[in-house]
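My main concern about presentation is that the manuscript never shows what a single data entry looks like. For the editor and my fellow referees, an illustration may be useful. For illustration, here is how one protein appears when written out as sequence plus structure tokens:

***
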Amino acid sequence: MQNWIGIAIWIVMGASIGLLMKAIISRPEEQPGHTQIIAVLGAFAAVIGGMLGVGTFHLYEPLAISVGGMAGAAVFATFMTFVYRWGLRSLI
């Protein structure tokens, strides 16, 4: 049960990071409707980053609520939403 709660925390944290990146990096040519996309992208990236963090730092006792899992989720969600907001949107 503890792992499911940790994964739910990753999802909420990733969506929050995505919305924060949307507020920080504003795009004047942006069309409406990207709020849901960036929230889902942040949540998805947080789950992947959390799994990578748990697998890297806590190999023998994997718990979703751990320093490695939370750090991995935060870093990867920030990176992916930053790439979407700043990098890919400027190339298109």
About this structure: The chain has a mean pLDDT of 84. The two ends are 42 Å apart (CA to CA).
